[in-house]
Amino acid sequence: MIDLRRRAARLDAADPLARWRREFVLDPDVMAYLDGNSLGRLPRRTVERLQTFVRDEWGGRLIRGWSEGWAELPTAVGDEVGRLVGAAAGQTVVGDSTSIAIAKALHAAVRLRPERDEIVVAAHDFPTDRYLAQRVAADTGRTLRTVGLRDDGTLDLTDVLGERTAVVLLSHVDYRSGALLDLPRLTRRVHDAGALVVWDLCHSVGVVPIALDQADVDLALGCTYKYLNAGPGAPAFLYAAARHLPHLQQPLPGWWSADDLFAMADDYRPAPDARRLLSGTPNVAGLLAVREGVAMVDEAGVEAIRAKSVLLTGLVLDLLDAEGLDVVTPRDPASRGSHVTVRLPGARDVAERMAERGVLPDFREPDLVRLGLSPLTTSFEEAVVGVEAMLDVVRSTR
Ligand SMILES: Cc1ncc(COP(=O)(O)O)c(C=O)c1O
């Protein structure tokens, strides 16, 4: 135990990102926060930015705010997120929830491959991804095919990919096991079959380096409330490669995706640029929070964040392995994201008892405890305190 604390203290002392933790609101009652993979901590800058927005901009500028910069936020903040995920300007917007972004991307992709009649989704992907894939398939007369991740966290598309495949929807990091897929390789594989790929980046944006343009990705989306720390329900981003934008038709056209927002025209003409991905009035407070979170990740650097993430997850894996627990996260650092998942009998109870001690993990049905490590806010000491609490609880139930 003491050795472990020493190891953690050494890692904290050598951590080039250590100062970032002080930039977040830290509740003294929370001994260890291991759920930043669900909801990132609150940045102090965001507290100030939102106070100013509410008081001076909403309160003071009222309707004038729209022409003084609010209306540009979905594309401006989109470009800022784009920089983090290797997307040149003009291809990314921020505005809807992730679920809505998935629906838009899937519909648009199916329309871009009208002669093909199959959609592929990972069998155990996040529920919203699967439900939407089912709905889009049913509404567009396509057949849904599913493919499971292998036990080692890799994915083989051989049996499901072919001449009939229109689109493949994949999560970069699996929300349960934390397995990280090889995005460039799988994108090439899907393209070799003549299909399009939609990537869900919810669990990788801000914590894993991503190069969407370089990998030739077609469409991608992700949430901003995990490793981008933009707050509960903050708007998601949606990326469409520039080569697709001129022909892209999304299923929820609205005045914000029209060529001229204020023309109030009888007929809908989509905007020629990324604005065509939008629908209705965006949430300005949410967009401003995304801007703050993205700026922090950008300043800290995704490469440095990833390096710390690998150390944090490595430390946690060592502790869990030493206890002989059933860890479902891949051991190879190149194949895992930033959370570590354990399969445990009575997982819900374990998570609740950890919470009683001020350690907040994440429980996923039926028997998984996820430990999320957020490199900007999680210290090595915090990770050790959290895992020790978990091991204490587990030992006491044996
Ligand atoms: C991988 C993944 N996809 C989609 C979603 C759904 O996002 P939202 O509820 O913001 O629409 C989540 C939410 O956590 C997620 O983890």
TrEMBL record:
Superkingdom to which the source organism belongs: Bacteria
Any one GO molecular function term: transaminase activity
Keywords: Aminotransferase, Hydrolase, Pyridine nucleotide biosynthesis, Pyridoxal phosphate, Transferase
Family to which the UniProt record says this protein belongs: Belongs to the kynureninase family.
Lineage: Bacteria, Bacillati, Actinomycetota, Actinomycetes, Propionibacteriales
Substrates-to-products reaction catalysed: 3-hydroxy-L-kynurenine + H2O = 3-hydroxyanthranilate + L-alanine + H(+); L-kynurenine + H2O = anthranilate + L-alanine + H(+)
Role according to the record: Catalyzes the cleavage of L-kynurenine (L-Kyn) and L-3-hydroxykynurenine (L-3OHKyn) into anthranilic acid (AA) and 3-hydroxyanthranilic acid (3-OHAA), respectively.
Gene from which this protein is expressed: kynU
Domain called Aminotransferase class V: residue spans: 33-357
EC assignment: 3.7.1.3
Protein name: Kynureninase
Cofactor: pyridoxal 5'-phosphate
Subunit structure: Homodimer.
List of residues binding pyridoxal 5'-phosphate: T98, S99, F126, P127, T128, D129, D200, H203, Y225, W255, T281
Record organism: Aeromicrobium halocynthiae
NCBIfam families associated with the record: kynureninase (TIGR01814)
Pfam family, one: Aminotran_5
Coiled coil: none
Recorded metabolic or biological pathway in which this protein acts: Amino-acid degradation; L-kynurenine degradation; L-alanine and anthranilate from L-kynurenine: step 1/1; Cofactor biosynthesis; NAD(+) biosynthesis; quinolinate from L-kynurenine: step 2/3
Residues with PTM N6-(pyridoxal phosphate)lysine: K226
